[in-house]
Amino acid sequence: MACSYLDLDCKVYMVKCSYEQKPFRREVMRTYGASVTPSPSETTEVGRKILAEHPGTSGSLGCAISEAVEVATHTEGYRYVLGSVLNQVLLHQSIIGVEAKIAMDKYGIKPDIIIGCAGGGSNLGGLISPFMGEKLRGEADYQFIAVEPASCPSLTRGVFAYDFCDTGMVCPLAKMYTLGSGFIPSANHAGGLRYHGMSSTLSQLYHDGYMEARSVEQTSVFEAAEQFARVEGILPAPESSHAIKVAIDEAMKCKETGEEKTILFGLTGTGYFDMLAYEKFHNNEMTDYIPTDEDLQTGFDGIPKFEGNMV
Ligand SMILES: Cc1ncc(COP(=O)(O)O)c(C=O)c1O
Questions:
Q1: Atom of ligand 1 nearest to the CA of 126
Q2: Which H, E and C letters describe 222-268, residue by residue?
Q3: pLDDT per 10-residue tile (average), the chain, 311 residues
Q4: Integer angstrom CA distances of residue 94 from 15, 25, 60, 144, 168
Q5: Are 239 and 119 a contacting pair, CB within 8 Å?
Q6: C-alpha distances in angstroms, 306 versus 48, 112, 289, 310, 311?
Q7: Nearest residue by C-alpha to atom 7 in ligand 1
Q8: 285 and 253 in contact (C-beta within 8 Å)?
Q9: pTM score, whole prediction
Q10: Rounded-to-integer distance, Cα 72 and Cα 4, Å
Q11: The predicted structure's pLDDT at residue 4
Q12: Is 6 helix (H, G, I), strand (E, B) or coil?
């Protein structure tokens, strides 16, 4: 997103398949005055380059970042804002974890397992922050689980390496779990969480064994979403439903073993903007896509090669 706060003129580059699959999210932004462009687009040099290399591509967050950076750096008064991945976004979202911890402390509840969906890692990083602090200081122990889509498995199948944060390779390198900045996730995946990499902070915590990761397939995610909606009366966003799926799995494990555990998970958004995906699920038109090792290798091949960069 490139946004000028002076005149509230806001340009949003939205991943093309999200632009098409999530029209209600798009229209909310337009209602508040943003102009929304499906990415990759013909409106930027980097967008045209990506389209020439990948004709008909459905885009990725990496492509949208490159386009937004180009517009922000070439347009007077514009600033670039990324809503995930970066440390300041995790810090911003730490309000979720701080509030959750205060509420639980107030009632004398300590979570055993803390679960969040992970796209770029911001909601999960925010949710776990106060709890992870305690774990790192040796004051308490918690099990942390990041949940990602099987179609974009940056933690569970990616490599820990310095890589570009965007497809156009204009942003600085970051050390993170990555599928390669050229990895374009399947347009088939309706549940978001499509970033090729993962927050550097979360990547390091995962690498050092402080956090686990699971990948889940989207039909099982929507089954969990539907079950949650029927039991709780809350219609969850597909992204949040990745966390719900694993929370249900963990609760079912407790049921089998007879163990009592408190599970905290992040419910990051409403599903009312995603009814087209729910419709697809209800009509049995939703399928799962898991990239093959060969698919992933194409992305890994694009990771910068220099001494010490593990690929
Ligand atoms: C509702 C919702 N939850 C979670 C996410 C995941 O993002 P992050 O991993 O940065 O928290 C997204 C990303 O678009 C989202 O739309």
A1: 11
A2: HHHHHHHHHHHCCCECHHHHHHHHHHHHHHHHHHHHCCCCCEEECCC
A3: 56 93 94 95 96 91 94 93 93 98 98 97 98 98 98 97 94 96 84 91 98 97 98 97 98 98 98 95 96 96 91 55
A4: 26, 24, 26, 15, 30
A5: yes
A6: 28, 41, 32, 9, 10
A7: 119
A8: no
A9: 0.94
A10: 9
A11: 43
A12: coil
Closest residue to atom 12 of ligand 1, CA basis = 239
Which runs of consecutive H residues, i.e. helices, occur in 57-160?
A: 61-74, 87-106, 122-136, 154-157
Which atom of ligand 1 is nearest to 85's Cα? 10
Residue 249: predicted pLDDT: 98
**Is the CB of 237 within 6 Å of ligand 1?**
yes
Q: What does the pLDDT read at residue 9?
A: 78
Instruction: Report the amino acid identity of residue 295.
Output: D
- CB of 244 closer than 6 A to ligand 1? no
- The token duo for 29 is 């932004």
The H or E element spanning position 201 is: helix 200-207
Distance CA 80, CA 4 (A): 9
Per-residue model confidence (pLDDT) at position 185? 86
Distance of alpha carbon 18 from alpha carbon 230, whole angstroms: 26
- Take residue 201 and report the two structure tokens written for it: 């902070």
Question: What DSSP state is assigned to residue 289?
Answer: -
Q: Work out the number of other CB atoms within 10 angstroms of the CB of residue 142.
A: 17
* 85, 268, 278: residue to mutate for ligand 1 pocket, most atoms within 8 A of CB: 268
Alpha-carbon distance of 295 to 158, in angstroms, equals 12
